[in-house]
Amino acid sequence: MSKDNTQRAVFATKIGAVAATVGSAVGLGNIWRFPYETGVHGGGAFIACYIVFVLVLGVPLLCAEFMLGRGTRSNILGAFRHSSPSGRYWVGTGYMVIIASVMILWFYSVVAGWTLGYCYDSVTGVIAGMDTADIGEHFAEMTSGWRNVVLTLVFLTANAAVLLGGVTKGIERASNLLMPLLFVLLLVLCVNSLSLDGLKAGLTFLFRPDFSKITSEVLLGAMGQAFFSLSIGMGCMTVYASYFNKDSRLGRTAMSTALLDTMVAILAGVIIFPAVFTYGFSPEQGPALVFQVLPVVFGRMPGGMIWSSIFFLLLIVASLTSTVSLSEISISYFSEDLKMSRRKATLVSTAIVMAGATICALSFGPLGGIEIFGLSLFDALDFVTSNICLPLAGLAISLYVGWVVPKKFTKDQMTDGGAYPFAWYGLLMFVLRWVCPVAITLIFLNSIGLI
Ligand code: PFF
């Protein structure tokens, strides 16, 4: 493991740094959440908004988090404290994202548990042999009982094991090896989509936007999805950038991360929607969508059992690289601010997440009656973190980096201390100062009916 002079771990290679940020970004957000949100919000119009948000809010905020992280080499709280004299007044945002990261882990690890269950069912041949009619029942059975809890806890144990392996060893190795493989497998599944009867209907749903469908709900959903998928507004990319080398060019890394992440999401859409229309599923069914559609796709592919086993295995790994990054937020806080050993910090964080995730897993069964503003516990956690906490933190980060952090700091970061020119600096700062705050505020006000 290489160390820089401040004794923090750094990623061993430049490629490793990009792979790890992509590893954080690419996960269930792309393959599970993107298709279901697209389905719920009517297809093409949602995707068009999503892509605009990735470019206009996502890439600049990724740069902002990278600047804070690499420039201060510390966790999200230190990133505020050490980047400007008045940074300590912004630390509240840091506490909010630490809490939000734990809340995301509560529901995210439940979905990752389903992935684990589907991987097991693939290897044992249950998935490939399933009739279309049985699929809904199988999903309900899997999610409503204690099996859901056990799967979630098994996943979180694996997550803790990777975290205890340390930054460069555990995360980097896993990301480098398996992310490209996931990408290839998604391409194979896309090719398979080409042969489906519902191809045209699926692609039309995805890529022919009906702009009259853009409502405040669609805008809020697309903005939340862009934040969730790129792991921004969470301090997660800040922590990762604190492990970057001095010369990992931030602008490029932000662009490559956003591009790869969006490609994976679109590929997932191309896999799911032609199948939705071929086999008569409803695109609007929400979180169960991918887990209902994929078994049918695999069931009809030659060698489906093998494909589905590999696919769900890779999806577990993609989820792991994301949960590892989410866990880093609280772990780096516990170990650096509360002075716990890294091992203890990991164990404490895992215990907190396991407790909450167990309750969240039970919200599909025994605790199904609990509702918050008409949403189940699971849906409420998803909605509040993605659509409210992440954009709120994004708003604070854009204002802070745009207006408060000294120009020397931001310029130094974007040019690697003057080593490379960065022609987009002026535009980037304009977007962070004006476009991000105004856009996020307008979408919030619009969604609560004030404008
Ligand atoms: N971006 C991850 C995904 O798409 O699955 C989820 C995520 C990871 C969200 C880390 C937020 C975060 F800080």
How is this structure best described in words?
There is one protein chain. Helices cover 74% and strands 1% of the residues. It has helices at residues 14-25, 28-40, 44-72, 76-81, 91-123, 132-144, 146-164, 167-193, 199-207, 216-230, 236-241, 250-278, 289-299, 304-336, 342-362, 377-404, 407-414, 425-447; strands spanning 371-372, 375-376. Helix 3 (44-72) packs antiparallel against helix 12 (250-278) and helix 14 crosses helix 15. It is globular, with a radius of gyration of 21 Å. It starts with 13 loop residues before the first helix and ends with a helix. The structure holds 4-fluoro-L-phenylalanine.
User: Helix fraction?
Assistant: over 70%
**What string, H for helix and E for strand, traces the elements in order?**
HHHHHHHHHHHHHHHEEHHH
Strand content: under 5%
Shape, per Cα inertia axes:
globular
- Average pLDDT value? 92
- Measured between the Cα atoms of the first and last residue, the distance is 52 Å
Structural class: mainly alpha
Q: How many individual helices?
A: 18
Radius of gyration: 21 Å
User: What characterizes the major β-sheet?
Assistant: 2 strands, antiparallel
What's the number of extended β-strand segments? Answer: 2
Give the cofactors and ligands: 4-fluoro-L-phenylalanine
Strand order in the sheet with the most strands: 1-2
Unreliable stretches (pLDDT < 50, length at least 5) are 1-7
